[in-house]
Write a sequence for this structure.
């Protein structure tokens, strides 16, 4: 069966810019959407953890998703995150995604509850029915407490809506399992420092927070690996990106770094909502140096210098 939606390219989980008082900065968000369209990304995700969904009400998340969908205006597909601790909240987000004309939903495990595989699958299918849109699963056991294992995948893959999975476990063996045993579920990279491995095993997409501020560089890796199959160039680009991946994935301040990265482009990102706090001066300087070196190196590789 042909998937209802093909996951192809770079998908940006969009940050939520805030004013100093914590209110949503809609003008800054509009500017970011335009920058991402111009930067060549292939899709936008509203309501992911990068967007600080855990610090927002359901009403705010629906407002953000509508705003991004309207600003995208069909130029890019928009995927709405439905992850929440309470199933009724996830259902409200799923129903809202359908009503606003979103292209798909991102569906994670409810955090903290630690459901069994069967319980998690039943919950996912209930959210799937509420949306009746293409579903991209989100496996992130580090945040959710449990993994979407074989029993879960065997059950939910019976729904024709389940077309992909954002794999963020960090376990390379999961890449092998998904590629070999679940080819009907499109695999998308959700662990930034493993992007090359995902592409080598057939993934055609990468859901990457760093593309909020480095869209062209992330697109360059996708084009080298997935489009042209030039893994020599892909390895060179990935090597240039690894210092950034280390800061993002291992530095302990993921969202803070992404938002400051956006600020380095001249756009507003604003503060984080509590409990997170911003980077200090040394951390900002370190990130800025990493970004500047990365941009120069990737440009040279792309231009063949």
């Amino acid at each position: 069966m042909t998937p209802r939606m093909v996951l192809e390219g770079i998908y940006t989980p969009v940050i939520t810019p805030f004013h100093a008082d914590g209110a949503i900065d809609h003008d800054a968000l509009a500017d970011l959407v335009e920058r991402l369209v111009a930067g060549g990304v292939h899709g936008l995700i509203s309501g992911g953890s990068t967007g600080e969904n855990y610090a927002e009400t359901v009403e705010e998340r629906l407002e953000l998703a509508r705003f991004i969908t309207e600003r995208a205006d069909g130029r890019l597909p928009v995927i709405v995150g439905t992850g929440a601790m309470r199933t009724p909240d996830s259902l409200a987000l799923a129903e809202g995604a359908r009503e606003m004309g979103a292209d798909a939903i991102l569906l994670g495990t409810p955090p903290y509850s630690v459901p069994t595989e069967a319980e998690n699958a039943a919950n996912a299918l209930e959210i799937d029915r509420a949306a009746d849109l293409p579903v991209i699963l989100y496996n992130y056991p580090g945040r959710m407490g449990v993994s979407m294992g074989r029993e879960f995948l065997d059950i939910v893959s019976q729904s024709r809506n389940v077309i992909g999975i954002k794999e963020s476990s960090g376990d390379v063996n999961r890449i092998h399992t998904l590629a070999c045993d679940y080819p009907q579920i499109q695999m998308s990279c959700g662990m930034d420092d493993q992007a090359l491995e995902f592409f080598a095993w057939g993934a055609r997409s990468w859901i990457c927070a760093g593309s909020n501020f480095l869209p062209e560089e992330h697109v360059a890796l996708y084009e080298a690996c997935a489009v042209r199959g030039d893994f020599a160039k892909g390895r060179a680009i990935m090597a240039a990106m690894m210092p950034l991946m280390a800061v993002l994935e291992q530095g302990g301040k993921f969202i803070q770094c992404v938002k400051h990265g956006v600020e380095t482009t001249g756009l507003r990102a604003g503060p984080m909502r509590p409990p997170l706090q911003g980077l200090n001066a040394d951390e900002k300087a370190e990130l800025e140096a990493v970004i500047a070196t990365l941009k120069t190196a990737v440009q040279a590789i792309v231009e063949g210098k």
